[in-house]
């Protein structure tokens, strides 16, 4: 026969609190990791362009040439910085991008030597407009609906993307000419809509 004593009841209660604490800790860790993954994710991709160049070139030198070309064109209100994005998730390696920004848009340029050549790409992205963009009706009234963009918003993204893309192509053309290689074809120059 088993007799429940005050000590046994206290041990059972302590054990129950331990399980509750583990569950709370698990929920807290899940929410923390989920929030962290939201904060480190890249912007919403709108367009993409990439090309493999038949010669090796250092990323830093190419980024500097792109910055110089943009500055030479005197494109207003454009800022740039270097940013490291995770390759897959928060536990993966990071890759350095040249981030060129205009208003809520950014064009992230990635370049790295690969084999005997150099891979270059860019992603046109849009900053997350925040929590209001997720509330129906309010997001449309405030112009933050991600499913609807005005002509002005589309034109703003397009002229920014075109100006920077043309500067990148000018750098590639100069490098190709210096190496005696062919220019990119019209098809190779075209960005790809992402969404």
Largest sheet: 6 strands, antiparallel
Structural class: alpha+beta
Name the shape in a single word.
globular
Uncertain spans, ≥5 residues at pLDDT below 50? none
Residues in helices, as a percent range: 40-55%
Treating each run of at least 4 consecutive H or I residues as one helix, how many helices? Answer: 5
- Helix/strand order, N-terminal first: HEHEEEEHHHE
Tell me the fraction of residues in β-strands, as a range: 25-35%
Compute the average pLDDT.
81
CATH topology of the largest domain: TATA-Binding Protein
Number of strands: 6
Q: Would you write up a description of this structure?
A:
It is a single chain. It is built from 5 helices and 6 strands. The protein is an alpha+beta fold. The protein has 2 domains: 40 residues; 152 residues, TATA-Binding Protein, CATH 3.30.310. The protein has a 6-stranded antiparallel β-sheet with strand order 2-3-4-5-1-6, with helices on one face. Strand 4 and strand 5 form a beta hairpin. Helix 2 packs across helix 4. It is globular, with a radius of gyration of 25 Å. The model has no long low-confidence stretch (mean pLDDT 81).
Summarize the structure.
This protein has helices spanning 6-40, 59-72, 138-141, 151-179, 186-189; strands spanning 44-53, 79-86, 94-102, 105-114, 117-126, 192-193. It has 195 residues and is an alpha+beta fold.
């Amino acid at each position: 026969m088993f007799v429940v004593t005050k000590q046994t009841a206290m041990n059972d209660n302590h054990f129950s609190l331990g399980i509750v604490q583990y569950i709370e800790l698990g929920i807290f860790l899940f929410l923390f990791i989920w929030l962290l993954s939201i904060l480190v994710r890249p912007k919403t991709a709108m367009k993409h362009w990439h090309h493999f160049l038949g010669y090796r070139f250092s990323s830093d030198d190419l980024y500097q040439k792109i910055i110089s070309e943009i500055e030479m064109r005197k494109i207003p209100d454009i800022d740039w910085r270097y940013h490291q994005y995770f390759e897959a998730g928060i536990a993966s390696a990071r890759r350095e991008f040249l981030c060129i920004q205009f208003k809520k848009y950014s064009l992230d340029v990635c370049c790295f030597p690969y084999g005997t050549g150099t891979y270059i790409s860019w992603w046109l992205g849009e900053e997350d407009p925040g929590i209001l963009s997720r509330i129906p009706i309010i997001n449309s009234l405030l112009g933050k609906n991600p499913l609807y963009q005005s002509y002005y918003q589309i034109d703003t993204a397009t002229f920014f993307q075109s100006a920077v893309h043309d500067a990148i192509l000018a750098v590639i053309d100069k490098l190709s000419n210096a190496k005696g290689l062919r220019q990119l074809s019209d098809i190779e120059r075209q960005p790809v809509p992402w969404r």
